[in-house]
Amino acid sequence: MKTHHFLRSFLLLLLLINVQISSAQALKKITLYGIPSVNSDSIWMAIDNGYFKEQGLEVEYRIFPSGTTALQTFKTGQGDIVLTGDLPSIQYHLQNPGAYQTFAVIERDSKGYVAIARNDIRKPQDLVGKVVATRVGSTGSWFVSEYLTKNGVNQSSVTVKNLDTQLLPTALCSGDISAFFIWQPMGSRALEICPNDVHQLTDGQGYIQGYLVAGARPEFLNSPDGTDKVQRFLRAIQKGKVKAEKDFNAVAAYAAKTYSLSEKATRDQWEYNTRPISLDKIYYQDFCSISKWSRGAGLTTQLLDFSKLIWPDGLRSIDPKLVDVAPGPC
After folding, report:
1. Tens digit of pLDDT for each residue in 196-207?
2. Fewer beta carbons within 10 angstroms: which end of the chain, N or C?
3. Reported confidence tier of residue 23, pLDDT bands at 50, 70, 90
């Protein structure tokens, strides 16, 4: 009798192991490149709550200091999906024809982009003759340019230094630079490190609306396997979006556990996050504005052609209302 019970238990254990192995083998693998910013909270919640696995995906999430840096690795052929900002996505698309398409806007906001300055910098004109920093080639470059131009400061009178995002707070607190322009949580970090020496000069409101977009290679997007993976990815982050919008404590817990972010630093960006998970009219309008600025700044001579930049099939398969009709080249 004991032998029969033992054999039955053993067979049940083997069956459970086989089910678990089969389940693990059934997961489709993707490598996702991202940045350590709270504007990724829809992604975070999809990871932390198992929404990707619910959709049959195993996601390897690799973090880079900025989308510009992530694209440098992506260009070597590594990674499946890359999260990046607005200007990097446009520049990469134009500089590498046929190698990249955007398939969803993950997040956008203005107040999550900040300029943090030394205490002697109180107004735009105080930056004349000073060194400011950003991740050159990122949305930060656009922010610096718009801030100086709209405040009547000649851009040639300010030295712009290129630094990776994680270096900006230390460089400012040590006095190596007079200000930096970048997205949160780097501003909050600087204010925590040296609160008596620095202050927030401005945020992006009235200057820029920064984006986090998801993109991939056209050959991946248009393959049956890639299309299926992107559809699963989008369904998972749609669920992650709902969780992120309603549960700040869950977002803050993930940020603290994964990036050692304080609750305040997380809230400083979370409360301004807008999570469209779409390709909408606002996206087209803002990216046309960036395109115009890029040509004026001499970064490109090309018009932005959305018929080449975007891949709308994934969102349309989930809900056609998530994709608005794109304008012509701008």
Report:
1. 999 999 999 999
2. N
3. very low
Contact indicator for 284, 304 with CB cutoff of 8 Å: no
Question: Residue 14: pLDDT above 60?
Answer: no
**Confidence check: pLDDT of 12 > 70:** no
Q: Label residues 29-56 b or e (16+ Cβ within 10 Å = b).
A: ebebbbbbbbbbbbbbbbbbbebbbebe
Contact yes or no for 147/115 (Cβ under 8 A): yes
The answer to whether 286 and 78 have CB atoms below 8 angstroms apart is no
Residue ranges of alpha helices (H) inside the chain are 2-26, 41-48, 51-54, 67-74, 86-95, 139-150, 168-173, 186-193, 218-221, 224-246, 248-259, 263-270, 281-296, 306-309, 313-318
- Percent of the chain at pLDDT above 70? 92
What's the whole-model pTM score? 0.84
The domains located in the chain, with CATH, are 27-109+210-322 (3.40.190.10), 113-203 (3.40.190.10)
Q: How far is CA 34 from CA 55, 85, 128, 147, in A?
A: 20, 10, 34, 27
Location of structure tokens 């999550």: 112
The secondary structure of residue 37, as a DSSP letter, is S
Q: How far apart are CA 170 and CA 186, in angstroms?
A: 10
Structure-token match 């990097």, residue found: 88
